[in-house]
Specification:
elongated, 5 helices, TIM protein, DNA binding, single chain
Length: 89
């Protein structure tokens, strides 16, 4: 591709760079950015998160998010996911 140098002038994700070098359409479904998709929060998880927040928000000297993560029944949620969901709610 004689015009590939133009593509190098713009920021590329690792998946786009891989496709540029190995050929477009080289990534299979489920690879790259698609597989990092976060599972959605269920209504039961949201309710549990709400209850844990109200329980631990008044505790002095303790990190509220750390306490929520320690008592969250669904493992695998990150601190960033919990904070983002609390802000959204």
């Amino acid at each position: 591709n004689k015009k590939a140098f133009v593509e190098l002038l713009f920021w590329k994700s690792p998946a786009a760079a891989y496709e540029m070098t190995k050929g477009y359409g080289g990534l299979q479904e489920g690879e790259g950015a698609v597989r990092s998709r976060v599972p959605p929060w269920t209504p039961q998880e949201e309710q549990e998160l709400r209850e844990l927040y109200w329980k631990y928000k008044e505790v002095e000297g303790e990190d509220v998010i750390a306490a929520i993560l320690a008592h969250l029944p669904t493992p695998g949620r990150t601190r960033k996911q919990v904070v983002k969901q609390l802000v959204r709610m």
